[in-house]
Each structure stands twice: as C-alpha cells, then as structure tokens.
Amino acid sequence: MSKFKSNNVGGNGNFPLNNINGRVNFNLKGVRYTKEENKASIGDKSEALIGELDKMSTINNVGFTKSEFELGLTREELEKRTHKDYLTTKKMLAVDAPEYIALEDGDKEALKHLTKAAARIDKIEMMLDDHNNLAFKDYLEREIAKGNEEAKLTKILFDAQKGIFALDRDSNMIKLAKGLEPKKGIGVYPDDLSREEFHSILIKMLKENKVDEVSKILNQRSVVKRDGDELKAIDYVDYFREDFEYMADELEKAAESSTNADFNEYLKLQAKALRTADPMLDGYADKKWATLQDTPLEFTITRENYSDEMTESVVENPELKNLLDKHGIVPVSKDCLGGRVGIVNKKGTDAILNVKKYLPLMAKNMPLNDKYVQNISADKESKQTMVDVDLVGVYGDVGEYRAGITLAENLPNDDKLSVSKLDGGRRNVYHRQIRLITSDDAKEKMQKRLDAMLNPELHKYYNDEADHWFTVGHENGHSLGPKSGTEGLGKYKSIIEENKADMVSLAMLDVLTEAGMYTPEQREQIIVTYAADNMMMAKPTLSQAHRVRSVMQNYYFIKEGAITISPEGVLDINMDKMVPTAQKMLKEIIEVQLSGDFDRGEKYVNDYFVWTPQMDTMAKNIKKVSKTLNGKVESPLADKLLSE
Questions:
Q1: 373: burial class by Cβ within 10 Å (0-12, 13-18, 19+)?
Q2: What does the pLDDT look like over 567-581, one tens digit per residue?
Q3: Peptide bond into 412 cis (omega under 30)
Q4: Which residue among 77, 172, 243, 533 is the one 20 to 30 A from 348 at the CA level?
C-alpha cells in the first residue's frame, strides 16, 4: 500500500422513494432504530421487515435504508470530543493564500472545477464506507433543523471522520449511531453477508464454473449485491454513474481553462475513465498522472484498499483458496476513493526531487534484490515523479480524519493496471498543510510530549522537518521490494507493506549519508524523530495497519537493544544499533513478502505485535499531556470555490 498517516499532535407501497445514483432507496419513516434494546416493539418489527425487504429487493438493485437513528454519544462525550483540546484542526489554503493569488486566471478557473469534482467523492466514499452513512447524515441535518444540539455536535464529528464509525487515537471505536456496528465488508458487500456465507457462495459459484463473475466480485472496483442465492458485482462506474458523470463533466471543464497541456491530457483521460466501466481506461489515466512533474495544479482520485476485510478473508479458507488458484483468480480488496486538490509548491518540490537521483542506489541496496522485480531499477532512470502540494481540499478517503490523516501518498499501487500491465511509473504527493506545525501552541504541545516520553539528552535531535525526510523515504520505500505476489498475505498484507516502507527509510540512512544526501547530523535527527514519533497513546487494533506496524517495530527494536523504554515510560535510543536493526528487520519482511504465505505472514505479525508494560506506561505519560483524540479539516478556499 502507499498511504502514510500523520499522527502529528499539532497542530412499494406507501414508502417515499429517493433515486440515488440509479438506485432506488426506500425510507421507512417513523422507525426508531434501537437495535440494542432488542424489545418486541414496532421498531424491532420494522427492523426485521427492512431486512426481509432488503433481501427481496437485491436482484433489482433496490436497497432499503433507515431514516431514523439514535445518537450514539452522550451530550457530555460530544462536548468533550468536539472541544479544541480533543479535536485538532488542520487548515487548508485560505481564500487569500499567496499560492492561489499567484495562479494564472485559467488555473484559478480550473481549480474551481477540480474542487467540485473532488468534493463529490465525499458522497461516494461514504457509500463505500458504510451502508448507513448517507441516511445518518440526512437524519442529523433534519434534527439540527429542529434545534437538536446533540445532533449539531454529532455532525461536527461525522463531518470530520466522514462517517458513522472511526477509531480514535486511543484505539476506541467511535460509534455516532447507537445500535450499529462496522462491517467487515464495509459498504461494498451486502450488510447481512457473513464471512462464512460469503465463502460458501463463492465456492458454489466456482464449482458451477461461474469464474468470470467470481473474478468480478473479488476485484478492486465493484460493489457486490445479492442475486438470488448468489452474488453479483457491479462496477463502480455503473454503480455511481450519476456522480461519476458529474465529476467527468467538471474535469473536462477544468481542462478547457488549465494552462498546462500535460495536466489537461490527464484530466481528459481521467474523465473518460469515469464514464466507461473499463479498468484499462483507469490504467491509461494513472500512467499519465504518474508522469506529471511540472504542473501548477494537483488533482488526484486516490484508490487504495485498506478497509475491506471481507475480500481479503478468502485466502484463509483452504478450499476456496485452492479453487481461486486453480482458476487463476487473485483477490484484491475493494478500493476506497479519495480526492485531492491543490497547488504544487515549487520550492518544496525541488527539495523532494533531490532524492530521485539516489533511488537506483536504494534499489541496489535492497535485501534479496536478485529474487524479485521492483518498481525502481538499480541501473536505469526511475519512473518516479514527486511533488509537494499546498492543499486546497481533501475529500473521501484522503480527508477522513480517523486517529490520523493522510500525510503523503505513493500511487498507483501494484494492483493497478498502469503498473502491472502498462509498465507505468509511480508518483509521490506530499501534503504540506497536514505536516506543517507552525503555531506556537502546536510547538508547545509537541515539547510537552517530548518531556513526557523522551530522554532529555535526545531532545536536541528532534526535528519536525526530519519527520518529513523520513516520510519521503517511506513513500519511496513502497516502490522498492517485491512488485507483486503478496496478495496471499491477506489481511496482513498492508501491515507488512507499511512496515517494509518504514524500514526502507531507516535502513538506507547510512547508505544515503555516505552518498551525501544526508549530513551526519540529519541522520541522527531522523533516527530520534522516527523513534519518538513511533510511540503511541494506546495499543491499536489489527485493522490499523499504520499503527500495528509501529508496535511491531518498537518491540523488535527493544529485543535488538536499539531502543529501551524504562519502567517509568521514558524512551532511550542506541544510535549505533538503529540502522543495523532496521536492515535486519527489512530483510525478514522481504522474506515474508516473497513467501506470499498467509500463515507465515500471520506468525510474523503476531510475533512482534506485542504491547509491553513499558509501552503502556509511556502511553499513559503521553496522554497526560496530549488530549487529542481525533481531528478535523477546515478548507476556506475550497468552500469558496464550491459556492461559485
């Protein structure tokens, strides 16, 4: 995978019909959704009725949604979680931002259309994320209109995390609606589909030689519905046709005024891909996007698969796995969709591009590099572009503030056709407004955190900018190592991939310092900043790939004597052991990836996903000085452009 998350503390009858994206949704008015109570009330009977009607409707792709809910958090909890001490704010570009004012008029006009296209992804991603998100959003808006203060506070959290469910920085699942639970199949599989039934249906379909349909069900870009006693896949382009057409129209309008020919070519290719259900069209758009380097504007539709735990479960069923292997079907989890709009920062981009000349050296120094093909070649020009971007707006998957928010991305991922079939390159995009800590208040909070958990003698090495350097290494690390064959790792694939990217960044420090990319002082700053930022406020869940890998690294480095955490919860670092330990861990990770073996991946994660008493003590120390649980994004320039 390729996302790097910021953990930065600074900063039918009588039912009314709604036609959404070509689907007919029936709203059962007046039903109070109180599933937890489990009483023989009209609400419970209606709940059962909705379930039966939903099953009956799926052949024609008709879905029943609830219109009434019960808020999941108390007034006290809502007031706490929406307070500025607990809900941090990341601010995107202002209306009068110099970066915007300096744009040519044509690019300003294009930016308006790009923002409108990206903003529509919020709606689409909410549908992919959970079946109830849009209905709950409508419910909150109705309640707010009635003067419901709890609904108003809930809406703040809903808009921040862009959905009903989110894990906070304490790894607690925040449920904004009572009686609902997050699903393994998020919003892309039937709400009532269990893992066991899913496997059983696929086995039956494969035995009946319905190979093509199973292949569509297990690909990245389909919403799955019931079809009698089977399942049917609907391509995203067909399922979200109305919204995708709107986005395509806006991209084509942007291409009419944007001043950059390469960028305009990409926008037209992306618009075409939004109109026709052909994965190769996305491949051509991705390939062009990955070549963009000298453009004034940034626009991306991100497609990454971290959240769907249903698709990746198929490799855990031996009978099903054998049938999939027999028919050459490689299951890939469903993509979540995000949108990013921004203005390319030339100065920041020039600094980041400095790393490009070192990529072949990094590829040459990857462990076991004679046993696999990687995206970066050790002996030719790297197909890798890089930009630093001032953000106008982040939407959908990119803008979900759930414990952390996306700091940078390396795309397209290896499962995309531009990489696997078209020999395309990769592109790194770094988010300036997410990473920058500029206010005195944010800097003071960071210092309090260091005081609570880091040996005072090491404070002089901590450097906010070093976190950015490490992130650059992490993102390029995704382009190094095995290019394919890791799908068999199932639910552990993302954890292991994120672990690899971190270890690439750290393991290459000595090589890059010797080559002149870093000074010895910068090397020490990166080591200390990495180690300090890797410490967390709570043990994560296995669904949090970016955080699980941090616990694994911390435990591994403790075992190797590279770091120690005192009984009082204070971190100390052995500078001489950090890079060799990272190199050792990186080699082990590559071996696991090359195996493609689920059991081996599971054992590797379980062996090192260990939360020690010392880690727990440190977490408590951090929580005493850092109250932040989640965050939100404010986008004044984007809001203005959307209103025009």
A1: exposed
A2: 999 999 999 999 999
A3: yes
A4: 533
What is the maximum span of the chain, computed from C-alpha positions, in angstroms? 75
**H/E stretch holding 640:** helix 636-643
**Angle made by CA atoms 92, 342, 281, in degrees to the nearest 5:** 135
The CA distance from 125 to 408, in Å, is: 19
CA distance 36 to 64: 20
Q: How far apart are CA 417 and CA 408, in angstroms?
A: 22
DSSP alpha helices (H): ranges in 508-597?
Answer: 509-515, 520-533, 545-559, 575-595
Please give the structure tokens belonging to residue 321: 């796995």
User: What pLDDT score does 439 carry?
Assistant: 67
- What CA–CA distances, in Å, run from 614 to 123, 177, 433, 545? 42, 35, 33, 22
User: CB-hemisphere CA count at 13 Å for 222?
Assistant: 21
CA distance 62 to 76: 39
CA atoms within 13 A on the CB side of 476: 32
CA–CA dist 326, 312 (Å, integer): 17
Sequence length of the chain is 644
Using alpha carbons, select from 412, 444, 452 the residue that is nearest to residue 428: 412
Q: What angle do CA 306, 622, 158 make, to 5 degrees?
A: 45
pLDDT value, residue 19 = 29
Residues with Cβ within 8 Å of 58's Cβ and at least 6 positions away in sequence, in order, are: 190, 225, 226, 227
Task: Mark residue 535 as left, alpha or beta (left: phi above 0; alpha: psi -120 to 50; beta: remaining).
Answer: beta
**Which of these, 580, 303, 315, lies nearest to 415 by C-alpha position?**
303
Quote the Cα angle for 551-493-195, to 5°. Answer: 105
Start-to-end CA distance of the chain, whole Å, equals: 36
Distance set, CA 639 to CA 94, 189, 549 (Å): 10, 33, 36
pTM: 0.84
* Among the listed residues 556, 535, 548, the one whose alpha carbon sits nearest the alpha carbon of residue 618: 535
Q: Which amino acid is at 602?
A: E
Identify the pLDDT of residue 438.
Answer: 66
- Find, among 22, 6, 242, 244, the residue nearest to 118 by Cα: 244
Place of tokens 């806006």: 250
Positions of the chain with pLDDT under 50: 1-64
Do 317 and 323 contact (CB within 8 A), yes or no?
no
**Would you state the pLDDT for residue 13?**
29
